[in-house]
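B., you asked whether I could sanity-check this one before it goes into the benchmark set. Here's the sequence:
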Amino acid sequence: MISGQLDQLNSNIGILIIGHGSRNIHATKEFARLAEAIKSLVPSNPFEYGYLEFSRPIISEALDKLRERGVRKVIAIPAMLFAAGHAKNDIPAVLNSYSNKTGIEILYGRELGINNLMISAAAERIKEAVISEKDTPLNQMLLVVVGRGSSDPDANSNISKITRMLVESLGFGWGETVYSGVTFPLVEPGLRHLVKLDFRKVIVFPYFLFSGVLVSRIRNFVQLVAEDNPEIEFINASYLGDHPKVVDTFIERILEVLSGANAMNCALCKYRSNLFGFEKEVGLLQSSHHNHVEGIDQACSLCELECTGECDLANKQSLIKHSHSNANDHDHDHGINLYPNASHPLGPVTFRSSKEDQI
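And here's what the prediction gave me:
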């Protein structure tokens, strides 16, 4: 069905897929594979991908390549699971600046969001992890979905919705959501609360597109909690990666741009509605906060493959200290200084003032 709809895509239109970028070489290679899978479905169109930070090519370099091929109109799709600061502010600011400088028309698509394809891809990753667990029915297991975490409550709530959809569709005994940074509860304190539910098998599923620093950190924290609770079996499910249904969702987003149906849902957007608790952020200037890390190509030599955590797990105290000093993993989410729950006891201590840290 999707391939038939692509017939309406004019071959003069360029396609740009925009990733976040990572210091993990493995993650950038995974993104490149995903981009190639998308490209294979639009073979007649000029196609490029670029990154917001850390990796090359950066967004403007990818757009330069399209422009050099004579492209004057581009469909740009953010490779973001949900719409938070990157999708709402940073990427549009870069695209608008480039368009104003060059005159090239850029049509901005929607984030991947929640649809049946994404939920099905997530469910299949989870089923892959439990395929050998035939001795325990799913209704006797706990599913923990780990979201990226953002200072945008709308994006955070979408992870909770994904969790509930997966719990009901697969029939888990219980489901909870934790986050890798910015908001609460973080992975380690969240898991330490959840072991009290007395499930003997816990499935931890990172709802992420790719590997990287954060996925490695999630698994390190799972290991810490598992070591302190040997009676519980923790099973790590894989992240989404280049699952075919994820690829199909990108094609859906491209087609939405063509049909004019690519508008974001602004009903609960903290920048556009007077959202309770976030009133001070309405109408904040749309700008990018990533100029200083565009294309710096800082890759960890230990991350050629997925990080094993060897550098942090030499002793537990080192990991805990590292998580406190870097829990946000470059989380300068737009408006983060205004995040009203920065001092939450289950959230990142990096958001607290020095005075609060001393309390």
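One thing to flag: The domain at 2-113+242-259 is CATH 3.40.50.1400 (Rossmann fold). Otherwise nothing jumped out at me.
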